[in-house]
Amino acid sequence: MECKDVGILAMDMYFPPTCVQQEALEVHDGASKGKYTIGLGQDCMAFCSEVEDVISMSLTVVKSLLEKYHIDPKLIGRLEVGSETVIDKSKSIKTWLMQIFEESGNTDIEGVDSSNACYGGTAALLNCVNWVESRCWDGRYGLVVCTDSAVYAEGPARPTGGAAAIAMLIGPNAPISFESKYRASHMAHVYDFYKPDLASEYPVVDGKLSQTCYLMALDSCYRQYCAKYEKLVGEQFSISDADYCVFHSPYNKLVQKSFARLYFNDFMRNCSSVDNDAKEKLQPFANLTSEESYQSRDLEKGSQQLAKHLYDIKVQPSTLLPKQIGNMYTASLYAALASVIYNKHASLSGQRIVMFSYGSGLTSTMFSFKLNEGQHPFSLTNIASVLDVTAKLESRHVES
Amino acid sequence: MECKDVGILAMDMYFPPTCVQQEALEVHDGASKGKYTIGLGQDCMAFCSEVEDVISMSLTVVKSLLEKYHIDPKLIGRLEVGSETVIDKSKSIKTWLMQIFEESGNTDIEGVDSSNACYGGTAALLNCVNWVESRCWDGRYGLVVCTDSAVYAEGPARPTGGAAAIAMLIGPNAPISFESKYRASHMAHVYDFYKPDLASEYPVVDGKLSQTCYLMALDSCYRQYCAKYEKLVGEQFSISDADYCVFHSPYNKLVQKSFARLYFNDFMRNCSSVDNDAKEKLQPFANLTSEESYQSRDLEKGSQQLAKHLYDIKVQPSTLLPKQIGNMYTASLYAALASVIYNKHASLSGQRIVMFSYGSGLTSTMFSFKLNEGQHPFSLTNIASVLDVTAKLESRHVES
Questions:
Q1: Which of A354, A328, A327, A326 is CA-nearest to residue A340?
Q2: How far apart are CA B337 and CA B343, in angstroms?
Q3: What range(s) does the Hydroxymethylglutaryl-coenzyme A synthase C-terminal domain occupy (chains A, B) (predicted)?
Q4: Which of B118, B20, B151, B132 minimizes the C-alpha distance to B76?
């Protein structure tokens, strides 16, 4: 059976039609002006109304994907869900979605729910891709659903909420295909964010620790990703080899910091992607211990400024939906990917997108996609058209 | 890279050293004599003491497996956990287990937790096997952990509790290898068992519905398993082609019913494995609708009697640990597999074990293993010796 270029054939996305502007939230919360818009880098936050939850959002997005790409439900052989929004402690979200397939008599669909904070969707995606590449693959499509509603107790984390569901169809000959060999993970036992109060929707979150963990995991994944690439390809890898860098986005400011951190990594690894002027300016930070480097505001600010011109090209196109919707937990990274596809689909063929998935607790993976236009209905153009981001954003009801 | 016969290379198991005899529980609960021992078919029920939980059990079993098979922690490339015992709504059990690997500097280990009732362990196992067979496999081992503590509110379900953790090492050239092509699943949206009260450990369970769902799922998986086998092999499949049938065991009585149900399926499909005497005796049930067939006590009793001689050979060796420990949720099916390996390791080479995994809600898969003695330390003999079941059972503290 043909099994080349396994990856994402099609995408669709649902997010609540209700949102609040971060500017209005600043006023409501009595926060200083710019705290959420500049401090966090966020524009709006979507939220579920009383008739929506992760189940309804995922039912909607799966039905919509099947319809819009004209996929017979019988052609799905695997369905996996990534989520950290617990509606039931035993029954998986996947079983709810089986309602859509039972009508067609297709009950032979492997997969359940994968869970670890914001990372579950990536686990589900990698599982689905492995299934297509494995000996048991029977030629049918995989389907991955990332669905979450992120809500926080009153306080500094509350403006980092959000909600969405994303569905992705998986198979061979994909326009968004995996470069399997360079995948690198960093997994560790940390309490940066967790949900020990089972009766509450709210997490316990240590914002500062969580941010450091995120950057440490990013460093570790990037180091290993580069090492694996270099071993196989025989050339140095640097951010100049990535056309786009897509990060899990709890809030945009951390994405800005993350890209700057990759730039600092490239400087420390003496990559030619860092120009001489930048090398000079970063030299004073070369001897920091890694712990010191996570804490240095000067390094953070300096590297962000130096990487700004590259950020605008390689990262900014991915930030549209995360800035407009907020943290979507498992859906966040794929909403950022959807933003790139939507914004840049006409020029993506032959390009590489490097992805960084992070879930507190913690689990993280860096991996990359190679893009090609593909064949209708599984083409970048059609995915961008189905996503229809501008219309969806414009039709929202904005609470003020 | 060599990638033949992917499956289970090694197993280890931990269960609490404390248990209660079902006979004593009958007296304590004021239940009629034999209600739990004959009615449920159970001997003992293990339970966690106040210093044990799913995390401690899984830490213990993973450390033990690595030590007993002399596996360098650096050689693990994937670690997945199946569980429905929620300790935290966000942080996966997998992250706790990373403590074991961080010491060796190995943080590049993919995988998170898979969850749907008792089925999560099977999802984790299939994911790990697919990973080894996929293009991204880097030659390292996978590790699957099934861990649960099953506790019920006072009432008829309470004696069906139990607790255990099982670890399985995954890789090529395995003594217990997958027959990937015949895998069949049945997935549906049902409320036979769920845990909607997030603050409680206890499930909401409809015992009668759950049993019917289990048997319906079994029928559906078996039908599809046979169809896939017959399409590929060109011969009819019947239980005579399985040397052992291993079922998820919430309580032993359901396992007895399940095997009889497969026998009835073989009768309905006119298989030669059903002798003429049995065909005559089952004829009166041939025209029942499937709904009627699930409700017929006469059919249940009759088919159990007719299948009894085969049950003793093909199923009974798998029932040791589930009868002695109780329902272990995700670990239950693999404790039954461990029982077969322990009891029959010397005669398993060349044989086929058919497995049926069920998780309420519902998710289910039937699949099969081919066995060979393997090479030390990954041999059936060594697995049986590491499992050391008799000594573990004999050293238990029995509450009476």
A1: A354
A2: 10
A3: 176-399
A4: B132
Which value, to the nearest 10 degrees, does the dihedral of the CA atoms of residues B321, B325, B331, B336 take? 20
Q: What are phi and psi of B346, to 5 degrees?
A: -70, -20
In a domain, A124, yes or no: yes
**Residue A244 shares a structural domain with residue A365:** yes
Side-chain half-sphere CA neighbours of A37 within 13 A: 13
The first and second tokens of residue A309, run together, are 């011109």
Does B253 show up as a binding residue in the annotation?
yes
Q: How many CB atoms lie within 10 A of CB A279?
A: 14
Q: Nearest-CA neighbor of B19 among B161, B145, B153?
A: B161
**Would you write out chain B's pLDDT as a tens digit for each of its 400 residues?**
558 999 999 999 999 999 999 999 999 999 999 999 999 999 999 999 999 999 999 999 999 999 999 999 999 999 999 999 999 999 999 999 999 999 999 999 999 999 999 999 999 999 999 999 999 999 999 999 999 999 999 998 999 999 999 999 999 999 999 999 999 999 999 999 999 999 999 999 999 999 999 999 999 999 999 999 999 999 999 999 999 999 999 999 999 999 999 999 999 999 999 999 999 999 999 999 999 999 999 999 999 999 999 999 999 999 999 999 999 999 999 999 999 999 999 999 999 999 999 999 999 999 999 999 999 999 999 999 999 999 999 999 998 7
Mapping DSSP onto H, E and C, the string for B242-274 reads CCEEEECCCCHHHHHHHHHHHHHHHHHCCCCCC
Q: Are residues A224 and A248 in the same domain?
A: yes
Record: contact A178-B99, CB cut-off 8 A: no
Pairing outcome for strands B113-115 and A7-14: unpaired
CATH of the domain at B321: 3.40.47.10
Nearest-CB residue to A134 (from B130, B187, B190): B130
Work out the angle between the directed axes of helices A207-233 and A252-268 (0-180°, nearest 10): 40
Residues B358 and B308 in one domain: yes
- The helix or strand, by DSSP H or E, that contains position A62, with its residue range, turns out to be helix A54-68
Question: Are B359 and B386 members of one domain?
Answer: no
In B141-274, where does DSSP find H-type helix? 207-233, 252-268
Distance CA A375, CA A368 (A): 21
Please tell me whether residues B204 and B338 are part of one structural domain.
yes
Q: Does A238 belong to an annotated binding site? A: no
Annotated binding residue at B210? yes
Q: Quick check: B185 and A120 CB within 8 A?
A: no
Length of chain B: 400
Contact B363 A108 (CB under 8 A): no
> CA–CA distance from B232 to each of A58, A115, B238, B270 (Å)?
36, 35, 15, 20
A367 domain residue, yes or no: yes
What percent helix, strand, coil does chain B show, rounded to 5? Answer: 45, 20, 30
Does residue B96 belong to the interface with chain A, where contact is any CB pair within 8 Å? Answer: yes
Contact of B66 with chain A, judged by CB distance below 8 Å, is answered with no
Is B84 catalytic? The answer is: yes
Query: Same domain, yes or no, for A207 and A346?
Result: yes
The Cα–Cα gap between A288 and A291 comes to 8
Are B21 and B146 in the same domain? Answer: yes
Asked whether the beta carbons of B6 and B369 are under 8 A apart, the reply is no
User: Which residue segment(s) compose the domain that B107 sits in?
Assistant: 7-174+374-399
Kind plus residue range of the DSSP H or E element containing A56:
helix A54-68
Residue A31: is it exposed, middle or buried by C-beta count within 10 angstroms (0-12/13-18/19+)? middle
Q: Are A392 and A64 in contact (CB under 8 A)?
A: no
Which candidate from B95, B186, B220 shows the least CB-CB separation from A116? B95
Cα-Cα-Cα-Cα dihedral of A325, A327, A333, A335, to 10°? -10
Q: Report how many domains make up chain A.
A: 2
User: Does a structural domain hold residue A1?
Assistant: no
Is A283 part of a structural domain of the chain? yes
Same domain, residue pair A344 and A291: yes
